[in-house]
Amino acid sequence: MAPTKVIIAGCGIAGPVLGIFLRLKGYDPVIYERSAEPTTLGLSLCLQPNGLRVINLIPGLLEKVIGQDLDAFAMYSVLPGDEGTIVWSDLPSTLRDLYGYSMKGVRRPVFHRTLVEHAQNHGIKIVWGHQLVSVDQHADSVQVGFTNGAKDTASFVVGCDGLHSNTRICLFGEENADYTGLTQTGGVSPKPDFLKARHPMTDLFGDGSHMIYYQVNDSQVSWAFTRKEAEAKETWRHMDEHVQQEFREHGPCSTWGFGAKELVETAEHIVKYGLYDRPELKAWHKGRVALLGDAAHPTSPHLGQGANQAFEDIYHFIRLLVKHNPSAAGPSTDVLQAVFSEYETIRIPRTSALVQGARKRGDDRVLQGAEERKKRNELIKEHWNDESTIAEPYRQLFTQPFVGESEI
Ligand SMILES: Cc1cc2nc3c(=O)[nH]c(=O)nc-3n(C[C@H](O)[C@H](O)[C@H](O)COP(=O)(O)OP(=O)(O)OC[C@H]3O[C@@H](n4cnc5c(N)ncnc54)[C@H](O)[C@@H]3O)c2cc1C
Ligand SMILES: *[C@@H]1O[C@H](CO)[C@@H](O)[C@H](O)[C@H]1NC(C)=O
């Protein structure tokens, strides 16, 4: 009997990883991607122990990931008259011993290409230049349609099509993404002298503004400057050349210390994008179609959990699919209902809490006014100086999602 065909919409970060797991469990996944080819756009992602643990369940993949293990958290105030260290913590250097994995900075297009190649090496078909626009459910199958008129049919469909998911619109109707009120301006630059031999995840706090930076390979640092601003679209395209030059020379971080000025001056390209999330959905599926990753729970980036939560989704999705459909034969709608509803019962509360947490972290980072900032910086200091307040949330973040042994 031919293996059960599954259509995945979207070959971003989640799509190829889900495809590989489905293949390993005996299904026949086909991935349809809107872009004509793998994108070179985007800056960086921070893979954390919970996400890396899922990646490592795929034989031979983690070894291929090019990135930089981070070994500290550094937080500085960059305000004139109040410059200096708020916190230096070596916690990230202990994560590998505690949870088996560290935090790893990666360049998004480099990581993306590694995932795509690994999926192709598993024989998974990726069809580029196909934007899903319709979903027709039948008793034992789903037919999807694309803007170019093409159609295809499979046993079930998983929408991994990101923030502007059409799969989500097909299931639950159109609704605008929520603009968080914050933009990021960012780039990738050579490692500044300031970093020397250390590899910290660094936060710089200004007045109503914030910069984060971390290494994404042995010689490159990705940075992003956050502020409150009028809405900017999420396109990941470079800013106009003269606007980039203005930002390098006279932008708000051109006077900042702790490596910031150098990073901005030497960036290859500077990108600006708005930060968006969406309200919680009551369900992530209808019939034979389910959502996963940003399509289900897009988040602002301030907890660095976007990609990691997509990997947790995949872990549970696959675990539950194997549990309810051990033969990998074409599942009935009842079997899929059991898989999808258990999946969303586990995943919706967890991802909603993190989406809200990221919103709050973002707002805290762009506080304005001397008193508010001082209070915030004191709270950060207190929090980080008390071992007991940091250990437990990290333990929960990194270990809570997994059921017994992490095998699936
Ligand atoms: C070009 C790009 C650059 C990014 N850069 C960063 C970054 O620098 N930092 C960061 O924190 N996050 C970035 N993100 C978002 C980040 O990848 C996700 O938040 C996270 O990794 C979850 O992955 P995902 O697969 O759910 O979504 P995504 O990685 O966004 O992948 C969704 C994929 O679906 C495709 N797609 C969309 N609509 C359709 C459709 N109708 N039919 C078929 N395919 C469709 C998209 O082209 C994309 O490839 C970027 C996303 C994109 C698309
Ligand atoms: C780090 O990134 C730079 C720029 O993309 C690249 O030239 C260099 O080869 C990379 N290093 C590794 C080890 O991949």
Automatic annotation (TrEMBL):
<dbReference type="InterPro" id="IPR050493">
    <property type="entry name" value="FAD-dep_Monooxygenase_BioMet"/>
</dbReference>
<keyword id="KW-0285">Flavoprotein</keyword>
<keyword id="KW-0274">FAD</keyword>
<dbReference type="Pfam" id="PF01494">
    <property type="entry name" value="FAD_binding_3"/>
</dbReference>
<dbReference type="InterPro" id="IPR036188">
    <property type="entry name" value="FAD/NAD-bd_sf"/>
</dbReference>
<feature type="domain" description="FAD-binding">
    <location>
        <begin position="4"/>
        <end position="331"/>
    </location>
</feature>
<dbReference type="InterPro" id="IPR002938">
    <property type="entry name" value="FAD-bd"/>
</dbReference>
<dbReference type="GO" id="GO:0071949">
    <property type="term" value="F:FAD binding"/>
</dbReference>
<protein>
    <recommendedName>
        <fullName>FAD-binding domain-containing protein</fullName>
    </recommendedName>
</protein>
<keyword id="KW-0560">Oxidoreductase</keyword>
<keyword id="KW-0503">Monooxygenase</keyword>
<comment type="similarity">
    <text>Belongs to the paxM FAD-dependent monooxygenase family.</text>
</comment>
<dbReference type="GO" id="GO:0004497">
    <property type="term" value="F:monooxygenase activity"/>
</dbReference>
